[in-house]
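Data card: per-record layout.
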Amino acid sequence: MKPSPDARPERWLGALALVVIALISLGNVITRYLTGGSFAFTEELSVFLLVVLTFAGAAVALRRNGHIRIGLLERALPGAPRRVLILFQGLCGVAVLGLITWFGARMAWQEYHWESLSPGLGVPQWWYLVWLPLLSAVMLVRQVQQTRDRLTGRLEDEP
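The structure for this 159-residue chain is written out next.
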């Protein structure tokens, strides 16, 4: 059995985001129970961390070949057409992630340029938005790695 490829930095980032979300939520619940009020910043920070967790988890799933796909056609095709299909799938993923990276970077730059502040904490909005293009670029790299590994046979098609 071949060892599964790893995405350790993304795993750590996702785990850290999950732990912080849990601590923030626990602190907010305890505060609301004891005082009847809640922290104003928790929703803003939790939503941001949930986006980070989602993208980090998606990058891990890409690297480990764990994304859901229908493999019926792949399994039915012989060698060369199957490789063409895998390459097509990889190129489609790269195109989508490239667009997310490009437009996410433009959006973060605009927020930086406009000096927009977040509604809850009043910090620059681009602090939250810059993670979108960064993590989608990481996913793009993981997509290329996965496609390469599937084409060369280093990664089994059935996880």
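Known properties of this structure: The longest helix spans residues 79-114. Residues 8-152 form one domain.

See the next section for split statistics.
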